[in-house]
Specification:
The chain is 32% helix and 23% strand. It contains 7 helices and 8 strands; from the N terminus they run E-H-E-E-E-H-E-H-E-H-E-H-E-H-H. The strands form 2 sheets. A 5-stranded parallel sheet has the order 6-5-4-7-8, sandwiched between helices. Its main location: cytoplasm.
Length: 208
């Protein structure tokens, strides 16, 4: 995907469809009778930006693995820190985002942002057409498949790419980390070293 279009380059698309029917929100279009000509530049055809969304409550070593692998594929990865309306999350999105920034500090093509609202709207705002999600086991697939289909319905140009977690992280989840930490268990290796002490402090005793 890198090098798909030079930043100064342009692509001209001629179509019989109207600008509205074409469905793309990018580019400048001109109507000539029954023909629509759309001119795209490098920023319009940004297929090299991927969104890696999640609640990250907290960020685990498994999450970080997926982010790193996505960063090796795409030119830029935006980690979108959102909420989960089905879960009570005492740690704010802003605080979770700060922890992720510390853990990803060495990844130059990764940025972290707080996400409010729908993922598809966030992706549109960033000119992204790719969502990256991690899969740990077959049990993850059903819910992720449904989410991907809903997102595709709301944003037809949006693709979801799944990256399989490594075997060492196949059991790992934020809920596991929270439970172990709440009872004073050793979470070293379960979360990135950069945020180990912070996670211990925040989540210790949370389940008691």
């Amino acid at each position: 995907m890198p090098g798909f279009l030079h930043p100064a380059g342009r692509v001209v698309l001629e179509s019989g469809a109207s600008r509205h029917d074409a469905g793309s929100g990018a580019g400048e279009s001109y109507r000539y009778g029954g023909t629509t000509v759309t001119i795209y530049d490098g920023s319009d055809l940004n297929t090299d930006v991927a969104i890696c969304p999640g609640s990250f409550d907290p960020l685990t070593s498994g999450h970080l693995e997926i982010i790193r692998r996505a960063a090796s594929i795409f030119g830029h990865v935006v980690v979108a820190v959102g909420g989960n309306i089905q879960k009570r999350q005492p740690v704010s999105k802003e605080e979770r985002a700060r922890m992720i920034e510390r853990a990803t500090k060495g990844l130059e093509n990764v940025s972290v942002e707080v996400m409010d609202g729908l993922l598809v709207d966030f992706a549109r705002e960033h000119g992204a057409r790719v969502i990256v999600k991690g899969l740990r086991a077959v049990s993850d697939f059903e819910s992720e498949f449904v989410q991907a289909q809903v997102n595709r319905k709301l944003y037809p140009e949006l693709e979801t790419i799944f990256i399989m977690a490594s075997s060492e992280h196949s059991f790992l989840s934020s809920s596991v980390v929270r439970e172990v930490a709440s009872y004073g268990g050793d979470i070293k290796g379960l979360v990135p070293d950069e945020i180990l002490d912070t996670v211990r402090e925040i989540y210790s005793g949370a389940g008691k």
